[in-house]
Each structure stands twice: as C-alpha cells, then as structure tokens.
C-alpha cells in the first residue's frame, strides 16, 4: 500500500468502475496526465451495477472510492462508470469529501454541447444509464435536447471481441435506425451522438461509419479526461499532453510504444474485487496496452 | 411467510437462480407438478454469478437455498442456475442438508445420453458454465464425449427480446459453425446439442432450424423437471402431468390459459434480491405466463 499520494511528488489519480470498461477512461487520462500515477479499481465481484438499485450502487461505489483515496492515496477521483456517475455521484463525493470527484456524464454532455450546432443530440448507453436519464438531465442543463437509447447488445459484442464484425455493424445499424426514426418523429435534428458507455469507444470506428454524414461522435471517456485536466487541483497539475489522436510527440513525456508495457506497470496499479482472469484477458483491449498484474482486493459484502 | 411447507397438504418446491432465467425451469416444473406450490428466488442483486469465484457463488447460493427451505418451507430444491449447479451444488446441499437438492447439469447430461446414438454431444452455455467443464465431466461420467462452447451473446439477445430475429439466427449460425468445425477437427460425430443455459429454451425454435439434420436439441430445464419427477420424495409425489409439448389436456388439472394469471399467483411466490422491475418485465417470457408480483427480499451482503 502507498503511504502517501504525494510519494515521489507524483499525483495519484484514482479511477473507479464496476468492471474493466472504465479502462478506456484510464487510457484517455494516462495520455493527458503523463506525469501522474494511477490506481484503478474494478468492482468485478458485484458488476453489473446496471441491474442494481440506487442505494446498493451508492454503497458499493463508496467502498471503492474510499479504497482508492484512503488506501491508495488518490488525490483525485474519476468515476469511470456511467451507472455510478448517473445514480451515485453525490453519495461517492460524500464518502470521500477530502478529494474532488468527477463523473463521466457531465463531461459527455459538455462535449456534446461543444460539438452540436442544432442543439439536438443522441445518446446511446446501457439500459441502466438510459433509465436514469442522467444524460438527458445534464444535456438539458446545458440547453441541449437529448434523445437516449439503451443498446444492451453492444457491451457483450465488445466483450466477445466482435468490435469489427458484420453482426456488430448490423446491430449498430438497427439501433441507430430506430433512434433516428424516433428523433425524426419528435422533430429533432440531431448532429451529435454521445457514446455513453465506457465499452463503446472500442466501437467508435463502426459508429463513425454508421452515423449520417455530418454527425459527430462524442466519446464520454475522452471528454472526462479532457475535463479532468481542467479540474485537477492547482499545484499538482502535470504538464499538458498533446492531443492523443495526434500520437506521441517528442519531448512531451509520452513514452514510445515499445516501452509502454513497463510504463503501464509502473504508472498504474489495477485492482479488482473478483474475476481477475477476465479483467486481465480483456482489459488490454480497453487500455490499449497490457494491463499487467491485476491485484485482488476484498471490499467486504 | 409460510409456517410450514405442508400447509394445505401441498408440497412446496423451491427453485433458485442467480437471475430470472431459471423461470424456464420453474415453467417446466409447474407443468410436471400440477399439484405443487413453488417458491422461486432470483438473486438479482448479485448476478451474474458467472463472473464470480466458486467461493463467492457457494456463499451466495447457500443463502438463497436456506431462504427457500427455512423461510418458505420448500421440501425440495431445484438449482435452476447452471453456474451454481456447476460450481456449488455440494456447498448448497451442505447448507440445507434437510432437503434433497437437484441441479440442472446432471439431468442435461443424462438427457443427452438418452438422445445420442454416437455418444458425441455438443454443449452450449455461458462462459462461466463452460469454464467449469461441469457438463463435460457429467457427460464423461455417462460414457459420452462432450464438446463445449461458450456463447456469451445469446443471453443478451434473449433479454433484448430478439428470440426470433435475423441477427440472433446469424449469431447462432456462427457459433454452431465454429463448434461443428471444432468437433470435426477432433473426429467427433455429434448428434445432440445440449442447451446448457436457462435462457436458451427461448431460442429453441432457432436452434432447431440451425442444427444439422438429425441432431437433437436437449433442453436442460426440461431435463431437470423430468428428473425432479423421479426424485421427488415418496408420499409427496403429485400425479404425473402430461407431456407439456402436447399442451393442456382436459381432466389433467392443467388450467385453461385464461385462468393462468391467478393460478400463477396462487401456486408461485417469486422473490428477488434486487431489480424487481426487470424480473417482472422480462420474467413472463421465460415463465410463459405472467409472473405476478415479485417480492423483494434482503439476504444481506
């Protein structure tokens, strides 16, 4: 265990998810905070949060948050779980009042506002996130009209590894056609699609091909990392990394690909509450590089 | 709470699943035990069991089993959860030594033995069930050679309601083609396909169309109900119901469709540990009739 979050002067950012999908958020954060260390926990013993009540989710997420802050020394927390962000962000902040806590919903909505000209946006997410209507509410708060749709097949398709498969393309086509028809029926003219689930960044290429011309695809994971850069406590803020889409740039602190494996293990400690095997097997696809060893931790319950 | 399992002289059969998929097993049991009452519990707060360790599954399943036996008065327990049957049947039996406990794996294997002439069978199931190799072991114990395949997309496709959808037909075609190619490579000549997941009976029509000519489709839910009839404690054994495939027959005690809703509520009490909404919304498809009110119960943890 780390005794202090300031060991070696490096900030530690804690990232929490119910599973390992939030590794896409960690990936985006690692690119933007090249000097930071990270502690990631996936509450795999109790996933999916989506089928659980708000009360249960709040209790579980609070335990993980306290583990990251009080046992791993995180000075800043990113809730890389749409369900927990939607239903339990206040409860999590109450559980760790000593650090700032950032969810993924507000950043996603904020990025949609930046991308949309019509003010009408589409949001696709899991059943639980859609039922919470958290994206709708966040978008409405920013003057946007949002139409949400649950796409429950997309997570299992990603986990099956069918991220570039005709079946997945067909499922996306069906979901988008239904959503666009509903938007038209309500008189909306959407020009942005928010990927409101941490698994969906892996489907971004298929999504880009499936959306109508001119529609922008917004990635909540990336949006959260962007906002994190602005919110990170002053004095601990590391140098700004370049746009990840542009690739590593000399002199920025981003390490060459060949050194990344070692770099990951040094910079990131990954924890899971159960089911380390699946985390280690699938996680690398989400993180974009090997996740290294995943440590099992018992949060009780 | 029922004070006694023998109230009104009717036997009570307890059915346990991690979710509501086990309602397909309950459905098969209700048809074969027209005089029995039933208590069903879905441990929805902690599903899916498939991603959890054996130790965790055993602890959770034991709590549900004790609830069914000691609080609902069940005199006989059917574990309608392949994962729990595969990993924790002994632990469940130890937790409720006072009643007989039946899983779904052995009955499925036994039915496969009855159906296969070549002695080679295919088993499709969830990732967790396949990784347990419980069907392989049960089949081997009966002199069969079994080849197993995880089909993780089928549960979400069923839950999406796409039980008669071209995408589902295509996914089944892909999975079966992979499995048949593997069987051929190993020199097997399979002539039976075991549906080793409680969700799969809803895909039976698509499966029947997808398998090669002459291959029999075995439904573990139905097989478990069949075995239950033979194992039910003597003296409490209700009259044998007709083959459910033949439909209701006058004078058998099976009620007309119009009266079924009331009948379900009288004969079955359904409990869930969380997420009653999804249980009530989707459960009727699995039970083949309305599930009625689902009661929330807290097993702790």
User: What class do helices, strands and sheet pairing of chain A give?
Assistant: alpha/beta
Number of domains of chain A: 2
Q: What about the largest sheet of chain A?
A: 6 strands, parallel
For this structure, what is the CATH class of the largest domain in chain A?
Answer: Alpha Beta
**How large a portion of the residues of chain A is in β-strands, by DSSP E?**
15-25%
Intertermini distance of chain A: 21 Å
> Spans of chain A with pLDDT under 50 lasting ≥5 residues?
1-7, 238-261
Q: Would you report the number of β strands of chain A? A: 10
Name the biggest interface.
A-B, 24 and 24 residues
User: SSE order of chain A, as H and E?
Assistant: EHEHEHEHEHHEHHEHEHHEHE
Overall geometric form of chain A = globular
Oligomer: homodimer
Mean pLDDT of chain A: 86
Walk across the major sheet of chain A and give the strand order.
4-3-1-2-9-10
- Which second-level CATH architecture of the largest domain in chain A applies? 3-Layer(aba) Sandwich
Helix content of chain A: 40-55%
